[in-house]
């Protein structure tokens, strides 16, 4: 902006305010550098900010959570513009970091070197905070002096308030605020600021992602795809430790719960290491299912278990339920249909030194329930004594389909029912788009079991997956009349309560 254009702009601003009954005065400040062609002048914005709040209807803004009709100053707009990259980057699809250079005008205080630390501590709320930006620079006019850069939005009209002036008086610092031309580069902008400046105006900006070890996992929308490689590079640049950025290219609809992905930036190594609830797992993110947003839920279920309990994990993945349960001295049977998940499950069992405490299977979930689970329950439940407090838990974390597997429990066992306290507890996950998700999940579970769960179950909201789509967990003890089929008089003698099945699984017992 040329001097003539700037003066015209300020004069117009002053005239506009005068028409509404206000006068304006700009504080005289010093310049240390020649203003660049793309220099901003926040003093003019702050001038408007001071008075526009009293000009009815001059400004309106849409907030994230609500609409407001009250007049608003231009301070927020000025804040965004001051910290926005140059407008010339709009529409960029190949990242050019040099194009993000711009110069802005900021207020500074001249101080002696020995006073800097005390001043920064006292005025920390007023000092400019930007990524990679030095808050203190050398004074070109005084080799023993320093310039402390202040936030122009915390210093209205480049003028200090009474509290700031009192601090400066105590530190024997001259209260004059000077103007300084500050160059901002790509390193000084946040990822959301960069993406907001690049993507077409009015479109959603993606700066969030799921982190899986060194991998950032994005789920871009269609309108963002032309910019996907730039987005990937920005995410990698702005997040230390991220060396690979991928975008999901299809929904999780495969038999093995994995999905296709495209590497947007960085290395193509998708074998990574993660730490969840103090346990380390290794996995190939392109071949197995892993969701870091489920760490709290994994911990919640494991917290319900006691040493000596038995856990059947029907859709175990790489072991986020099974391994911490084994660490807790539970007896664990873990299964997954995906051969890759099964391989990594075995690997992580050894990695965490619980490979002797977990029996792993690579089967369809229904076959796992009809085979190893039925055999173990048939063998152990009749042996339980009333005073024993060990419990049986069955985790079914396949929210897209798990409820459809509940019909397996209908007459899974043959014989006289065990004590009510010993009946296995099921933790079954499901998705719901219903207006009452808990009611929906319960009704679907009841339909699969063929019985009412009213007063006999609890539902827990795990997380919001998408707009109007929730993930829930329903927990219940399998009713005895559902789990057991009583033998007819002419069938096997009551003394034999063993499972009648053609499948013969190992009688090997779990280590204590």
Distance between the first and last residues' Cα = 78 Å
Q: How much strand?
A: 15-25%
**Gyration radius, rounded:** 32 Å
Task: Give the helix level as a range of percent.
Answer: 25-40%
Query: How many distinct beta strands?
Result: 19
Shape: elongated
Biggest sheet: strands, sense, closure? Answer: 7 strands, mixed
Q: What is the tally of helical segments?
A: 13
Mean pLDDT: 81
The stretches of 5 or more residues where confidence is low (pLDDT under 50) are 1-78, 495-512
Structure explained in plain terms:
With 512 residues, the protein is an alpha/beta fold. Helix content is 26%, strand content 21%. It has helices at residues 3-19, 42-52, 75-82, 116-122, 162-170, 191-198, 228-238, 295-304, 322-327, 339-351, 365-380, 437-449, 480-483; strands at 102-112, 136-139, 142-149, 177-184, 210-212, 215-218, 244-248, 261-266, 271-276, 279-284, 310-313, 331-335, 358-361, 392-396, 413-414, 425-432, 457-466, 469-477, 484-485. The strands form five sheets. The chain has a seven-stranded mixed β-sheet with strand order 13-12-11-14-16-18-17, with helices on both faces. Strands 2-3-1-4 form a four-stranded antiparallel β-sheet, with no helix packed on it. It has a four-stranded mixed β-sheet with strand order 5-6-7-8, with helices on one face. The chain is elongated and about 105 Å long. The protein starts with a helix and ends in a 27-residue tail after the last strand. Residues 1-78 and 495-512 have low confidence and may be disordered.
